[in-house]
Fold this sequence. Notes:
By secondary structure, this protein is of the alpha+beta class. The protein has one domain (23-114, 123-156): Heat Shock Protein 90. It has three helices and five strands.
Amino acid sequence: MKSGRMTVVQTGAGIPDQGRETRWTRSFSAGDLATRTVLAELRSYLTQMGAEPQDQETVELILAESLNNVFEHAYSGQPGPVEMLIDIKPAGIDCLLCDQGRTMPFGRLPEPAMHDLDQTATLPEGGFGWHIIRCLSTDLHYIRSDGWNRLSFRIPFDESR
């Protein structure tokens, strides 16, 4: 796994210490262990940046779901290159995930039907990831360009504080 690089961006954004590095990038190979490692590194970075625990948990959940989709579906459970960019902005945390796996079906984001949560006996084991991602993020976009899948989204800061 290559080590990530950080770019200094003077934004004066919503994280407490203004003028700190707000961009965090990683290049790694898709897989369970790499995903856990990268998410732990990101959590540490967000803590250093002063992100609230609730915001950190939301970022981790959405990225775990997204990276699991990359590994299971784009790469069919095999390793493959992943590029991740995290950028802290005044309104939230912008995320960009890029991979060279298979294109999403029909070249667009899935829109799975919602399961009837009152019918617990017939609920499937999986299939909730895209609902979680859609409910907890904004500005969700997907494009396939130059052999890369690019998934971007914003995780808004929790305004209940």
